[in-house]
Amino acid sequence: MRIIRKKSPYIVSSLLNIAFFTIFSNMIQNFLNKIKDLLAPYKNIAYISLAVWCTHIVLRILLLFRNNPYGFPFVSKPDWYIFHAITLDFLWICNSLVVFMIIGAAFQAATKKRVTAAKTLTIIYAVFHSILLIATIFDHELMRFLGCHLSFGLANTYKDVSSFRMFWDYSANDNSIPFIQFFMFALVIPITYFLYKLYLRKFTSVKKFSIFMVIFYVISYLFINVIWTGHGRLKKLRPVVSTVYRELFEIQKKTEFSDGELLAYGKMYQELWQRLEGDSLWEFSSAKESNGLPLYRIPKQELLQSEQLKQQRSLKPNFILILMESERGLNVGCLNPNLKPSPTPFIDSIAANSRLWERMHTSGLPTTGGVLTTHLGISDHSTLSAATDLVQQNLPSFASTLTDSGYTTHYMSAADPAWDNLGVWMSKWYTAQHYDRSREDDSTFIDHAISFIRDTLGSQEKPFLATLMTRSNHYPFNFAAGMTEEQKQKPLTERINYTMAYADRQVSRLIHAIENKDWYQNTYVIIMADHGFPLGENGSSTMTGYAFSNATWIPFLIHGKGIEPARDTATASQMDIAPTILELAGIAVPNIFMGHNLLRGHGEGYSLGAYTGVKAIGLDSYRLISKPSTEEKWLFAEGDTRQDKEVSKEHEDVVKRLRGKLDSLVKLADYSLEKGL
To answer: Is the per-residue pLDDT at 19 higher than 50?
Structure first.
């Protein structure tokens, strides 16, 4: 009896577990039976879905594992893309299946004709996917040729007959497989039909099919959203149906101005620019002369013939621009004297002999936003993804201007530029790109950069621009070679110090390896970051939804001949880098930069940034962060770089004034990016 009493809790527990398992199994069984009953009348469209998915897998393989038309890999890591592509396609195809089944059920209930409803729906569903398969081929080829997705705007741009002739020429000269596009167009629907018939014969069990769909749907969702996320990758792989949906329902309409608004906005910006720039060496063209771009300005002869510009131009200086991945201003020693020990001893040492800006902010997040705004001199688009949605626009950068002016320009990246479509932009602007999968650690990457800059670029007669993008200091901050397991287990707020120190050492190796070369004396070294990274400060720990200094405050310094060491407290942002570099090169060309030449040192400057659903401006000694969707706002004194004290309630007049200026400037930036030159 004692034994029975002693074991009774375990017996009861076991019985309860068995009962729970039985109930749960019955629930799953009932759920599957309901799906089976639901699918039964529409078995054909379920098999069409499976056939379409398999065809999309083939199309994805032909996209990811082929070269682009110019003979280079479309993506350098197709194995990192293919599983995202397969699961992403499965999700949207299943979603479309559910939508059509609901429509079919409603039609059936209204007409009381089950067979008729199923047949009608099958025909419509087959036509729907046939159209999407053809559109998908167009979309994939546009990504290979132009780096952008098929869109209504693009279709409208290239709707004339000459575009079809151009498509033929491109196909004939495709350095991957010439004319394969036409075979894809001809075979895609017959292959899908063959697969559909095959599945119809082989898979007779609707129940098994239902189980497979439910299980794989859950796996696909978890894979994309939890197991291995990738925001930039998903944008690149965006299916046509998602692009159409976004254009119809999500993306805001194209930014438009009436003639009166264009004049008013232009006058507002030009007055602000003139106040901050502090000279009259540039002039703004009328809306008619500038194709309706209020930002368009041209240099006056006084500037073009100035001795300073002539002297800089005659020097033909070289430029080495180093973009440090996630280099937070909050963790840079020269910006935080109380930070002991400093994670960035080399940057600290070179900053002591350079012009250092203490209040530099990103103009876009994440890497695509930071890198593109640095090149374009305009704040990032507030709603569109510039890297993919605006790639068809003619948007010159400081790099393309240097290329056109006789420079040899090279973009070197430790991370794959194709990852988030940056490679398409760099191919427009630079003479060449450098990326190799075997050089993703900053150590091997810098080894290559040293060799190429020292032995190739430094030995030629042409001036050069070498832009370097590091990688090791990236979330989750455990990529630095040589990190111990103990270090990798530390909190993120501590791990970032190890990875920043590692990246700092690699940049130190680069500079020390070339600083004794003769050409180095005629070289400007610019060190900055693409963006920072939020690690809980101000209550934010994600790259989206906020724009506090943990993510936007970055180091920025210029080192080189004629640059007097100084610590500059003027408010600045990545928009200012393009005009600053070009004037260092002695080049003044018509442009739509929203930034200023920082070396003129006039006034307190201003900063502007558009992030995911958030905007920010630094002006007149304050920095305002605004989140329009929730009406949230934060105001800080510009000198409060750590943003410890929020003062919006004490200065509501400042908030109102800056918010009006911010909204206008961001709208102008969006308009200019959409319109292009």
So the answer is: yes
